[in-house]
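YM 10:42: DUF3369 domain-containing protein sequence, as discussed on the call
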Amino acid sequence: MSDELLFAGDETPATGHKGAQPWTILIVDDDESIHQVTILALKQYQVEGRDIRFLSAYSAAEAIDILQQEPDTALALVDVVMETESAGLELVHDIRRKLHMTDIRLVLRTGQPGQAPEHQVIEAYDINDYKEKTDLTRQKLRTLCYSTLRAYRDLRLVRQQQEGLRNILTATQHTLAAANLSSFGSIVQQQIRAIFNVESPEFWGISMVPDDGSGYPYLHVLQAANNTVLHDYQDKIASLPGPLRNLVAQAMKTDTPQHSDDFFMVYQHSEPALHVFLLVRMPHPDGFQRELLSLFGANLLLIYQSLLLREEIVDTQKELVNRLGNAVEMRSKETGAHVQRVGIIAELLGQHYGLSSYQCELLRHAAPLHDLGKVAIPDAVLHKPAKLEPHEWSVMQSHAQLGHDLLADSKRPILRMASMIALTHHERWDGKGYPRALKQAETPIEGRITALADVFDALGSVRCYKTPWAEEDIKHYLQSQSGAQFEPRLVDLLLAHWTEFTAIRREFPDAEDEF
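YM 10:58: structure's back
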């Protein structure tokens, strides 16, 4: 391939800002001139303000060694024919299957298209593009870089968001186990350090507590820094350090969160004289960190307030559990109303079954977390519109164990029950369920109840893939599964009190614009 052909077309000047982390592109080709002209074509070229860093490999084996040391490589331009006629194809297979690098964009380049026909290669190999070397002018090569590097950026952002949500759920779970404000402060410091990679985490919790009626609130201040936690009551805002004092005063005046170069604030104003603030010292967080701080901070604020006001601890725990359940259902493209109804239906079934009022109350708030483990299921499996392949179905089934594992170490009664429900709500009365193939009463009653409540509500609800079933069709299905999927006594109770259960859907309907 001549330099003239490669560099044909208009010149495109580099744009953007210097200093950002460069993209890493790996060139895999046994022809030194291909490396030279590719680098020359992209010299001083930027994609979204980021420079390009080039790595060179002259064989498939060398490429594997480089990728093992450079896991953040964004794009590999791979020659088909190198040490063997199919070396590039085999390299693609090894990158995807042996190195498990699913984010890197792989583009095959060939000077001999007849040896590896395009349609066969695209069908058989997990690549992102296939180009003849003679097609890659300077501009086309730059266009290729734009499209592939943007795709890589988007994939990494999705991974980051998934990991961030998993970390927030896990961190929230650990924080819920705090027995007092001191342990709460210590745990939060640990989680901020782990999630945001902050070397010396610092945060403040400030609650304006109504006084005896004089109209001026006093403060409870919690400070956690340098692995120490201090908390005490203070009598006025002026006692706060200057930067915090100004942020708190402005938030109260505007009734909105306030941020500075040093602090990110989460703020709640629930009563005329009750204001609660959580401030994390994190200079200049980026957009994604702000989203995580908002989510994590909102949960922390609720826990802090509930520990401070001990009489509200149970109600606060219930609200947080529902928020987590709704977050999982939203990711699964279900509705928040569905998880709410599942809890209410489960509670009602428990009452008719003869469970204690305490068990039924726990069941109402634990059942909505039955699918918590789906937060760890990849989008490609969770949202696949077609029938799942056997290995994909195995991944989907793992959500039962994952949900259990996320909650298993909690000492809170609701979350302990939710952990057990997450593990057992796909077991069947006939022993053909998963993950443990439990039979009949081997499955805890809470799991058996939630399984029926979930299916009953799902059948009668709108989904993006179906319309609601008619009531008679739902009845026939439940009757057909009595003694197979569901405990017969539970099915009989639901059918005997049918109008009570169908009234729940009318009382808590899905939003009209959900789908």
